[in-house]
Amino acid sequence: MEHIRTTKVEQVKLLDRFSTNNKSLTGTLYLTATHLLFIDSQQKETWILHHHIGSVEKLALTTSGCPLVIQCKNFRIVHFIVPRERDCHDIYNSLLQLSKQAKYEDLYAFSYNPKQNDSERLRGWQLIDLAEEYKRMGVPNSNWQLSDANREYKICETYPRELYVPRIASKPIIVGSSKFRSKGRFPVLSYYHQNKEAAICRCSQPLSGFSARCLEDEHLLQAISKANPANRYMYVVDTRPKLNAIANRAAGKGYENEDNYSNIRFQFVGIENIHVMRSSLQKLLEVNGTKGLSVNDFYSGLESSGWLRHIKAVMDAAIFLAKAIMVENASVLVHCSDGWDRTSQVCSLGSLLLDSYYRTVKGFMVLIEKDWISFGHKFSERCGHLDGDPKEVSPVFTQFLECVWHLTEQFPQDFEFNEAFLLQIHEHIHSCQFGNFLGNCQKEREELKLKEKTYSLWPFLLDDQKKYLNPLYSSSSQKFAVLEPNTASFNFKFWRNMYHQFDRTLHPRESVCNIIMNMNEQNKQLEKEIEDLESIFQAFVLRNET
Amino acid sequence: MEFAELIKTPRVDNVVLHRPFYPAVEGTLCLTGHHLILSSRQDNTEELWLLHSNIDAIDKRFVGPLGTIIIKCKDFRIIQLDIPGMEECLNIASSIEALSTLDSITLMYPFFYRPMFEVIEDGWHSFLPEQEFELYSSATSDWRLSYVNKEFAVCPSYPPIVIVPKSIDDEALRKVATFRHGGRFPVLSYYHKKNGMVIMRSGQPLTGTNGRRCKEDEKLINATLRAGKRGYIIDTRSLNVAQQARAKGGGFEQEAHYPQWRRIHKSIEREGASILIHGTEGTDSTLQVTSLAQIILEPRSRTIRGFEALIEREWLQAGHPFQQRCAQSAYCSSKQKWESPVFLLFLDCVWQILRQFPCSFEFNENFLIMLFEHAYASQFGTFLGNNESERCKLKLQQKTMSLWSWVNRPSELSKVTNPLFEANSLVIWPSVAPQSLQLWEGIFLRWNRSSKYLDEAYEEMVNIIEYNKELQAKVNLLRRQLAELETKDGVQESP
User: Fold this and answer.
1) ipTM metric
2) Residues of A carrying an active site annotation
3) Tens of pLDDT along A124-165?
4) How many angstroms separate the CA atoms of A403 and A426, rounded?
5) How many Å apart are CA B145 and CA B134, to the nearest integer?
6) CA nearest B436 in A: which residue?
7) Which of B357, B449, B456 is opposite residue A509, by nearest beta carbon?
8) What is the sign of the dihedral through the CA atoms of B354, B358, B364 and B365?
9) CB A439 within 8 A of CB A104
10) Structure-derived torsion over alpha carbons of residues B78, B84, B90, B95, reported in degrees to the nearest 10
11) For B196, left (φ over 0), alpha (ψ -120 to 50), or beta?
């Protein structure tokens, strides 16, 4: 609390960004240890979590007061006018401090208390069990086994303890391969397709430089090929643009030389790196924030931000994976540089296209736990949970959610969850309210003792499941019903509900999804009422007969 | 003229048809006076029946003796015909070109079409101006019907009956007509019952460079405002364009002569004032604006019937030149300067509002798409001609069928009814931020991608709504039966 000098300011104005005549609400601004709260004269509350604050800006003093503009990571932008500059300054300073924590222990998750006891908390953490998930996929089996090579994080600090590898890959091969891969991230199983007996594997780039080879690595890739009885060749997908991969060779890294590996087919898919993605989103947000934006400026800004082009690149890569498995029966090994950004995007999205389980509420949680959290997507760095290097921040996971949203738009009946579910998950990767997304890898999370000190998000979402169900979901689809999205450019559109989630005036005033959701609920109640009425009716009839 | 003269090769075998979402099919191509037909003579493939008037442009290509005709339609569909034989192909192409651009309206399909359905209500009489006026006359006595234009002599593009201020007589109207472009003197477009404010429309005033005035015009416009009330004259053109119009004899109102009125060239904030709106002729952007305003303000215009009445009043009767504007469309490279998708743009605007208020409209997207199609190519006479005067001369009422006769039957209505509709008596203010506007996929991506999954999802939504109604009815019935049993029971038990 030492950062808070002023806890309450009255007569603050909240401007409506999108009204043409500078409409505003007047109310009181409160600063708490965790939130900034605005209560307007209608008693409507706007809560802003300190961790959601991306930037705070104090603009030049005007006749009506001192403007304070807050941009949030969930794309909320609020524009306050504080009557006295002194108050504005205090709040500004406090927010600067409160929104940038230096230590994990100061994050909200460590103080958040939803009134659960320890065993409830533990059960929450056990809700998603990755061992179960691998079993569901069909491993271990005669070709794939659980490796204990990384049980103590000795080979790779950013991988989970439990990894699945081809049965014929011995420990020395694994160890050898890991030394030839950036950050020790050697090829391991991400998804196993039981019907096709083909696999999606993931790793980081090889340390091949201009000519280096590693026999163990070559063996491990061959072992992956051989673990697929249906096809002798496998694809190696480098998700980077070719130029980037070539440039990496000068730093002793690079990509696989097809000549050194038997039976691989090498392929670049050209997804840009985290820096390009960060600046692309930045450009998009600048366009969105423009006051009195014209239609032309919106579309040319959207185009020049490149954002939708990047979304399409990720989607196309995922489709490549799904096709390799479905059409050619081939296994695929995916990597980028370190194998925790683009690789996570492509592997998870590819699996989601292939396996309908990941399109359910629970399955989607499992997918995120597996391909993102356990495989070391650096959530804390990418989301800027702590005051750190701004160059590590990048909307990689946001892009994944957007790809999924685009799929839900094309396949409105194939997902058990709705858009609100995606938005809620996005909210919480930044909220630091739950432990799931804190830290950058499993090892770090264990050191932070997150399972003892914080709560898992998933049980809370499941408790609230009703809000997140897609009323049009048709669960009859087969487990391996593959989605084949159309990626012609006209299918990619601006996700208003994400980037303008809090700008209510831009949205349809009547929500079809909500109406149908409520109607589904009502239908269930009516069914029950009919049952009850019929049994009363029966009772009546019986009584009158006797 | 006989169609036969234009059809040198009426029939070609072994033609291959390529069209969106269907596998290529081989069959016999037939040309009739109004249709291009491809029939495969197989039970399981659909025949193609394409109105020549739907064809916007054709390209032809030859590879050896095999010719290819690419047909681009006004509904934005593109199909391809592979025709064996160069001569046949050339003949077919020239026939299509001639038949799709017939000069004479009376040769068009609506004059030949014989309906195969039972007419329940003759659409030509569904929306009579007198009936429409009755909706207002209960609320105000400031306006009257005028028959000054019954011979189309005062204004050739106006209908015979218009609504004008009660205090202005027909003689004054005649004078005002000489001061307004195309004789389009100010008439009532909409009366807002909640506050008595009105929307009027007209053509531009013919002030010219020397600032000509017309006392009757000033009197008419000023007569529509009570003392102390303000009005806006919205000129849909930019100030610059409006100023340039003076050189050609057109112009704009001088505010000094219309003391209660302010003239503007942009949109205004909500405020509760009366409006006079015009551009140059008052037959295009003027009608887009007056009709959209009514969609926003008037719940009735969001019903099927009300929207049809709106099209009838604000587009057909008001003299939007459909024949000229829809003669060709986007694909045609040789279009005339009077071609313009003004009506499509209006329908797109309605679709945008429908997207934002999906429960406030009685009709769904299909209704708008259907109107778009029929405005460009139709078996019905409704959209033929440029104004009422032309339609009268063509005797459309006697010689053709009205689109409304066909649409307003239960079987058709069910296809265009919005299952989510719940009457909303409020004014619906749409968002016009660029982030709120979307590409109308139902029109512009219709032939580019399959809508199978979206259609299935829509079906499922309809099922849920239908099921809900069913359950409600069943619960009500059971409750009633139970109540009856209980009262009977009560009667029996009481001594």
Assistant:
1) 0.93
2) 336
3) 999 999 999 999 999 999 999 999 999 999 999 999 999 999
4) 13
5) 10
6) A506
7) B357
8) positive
9) yes
10) -60
11) left
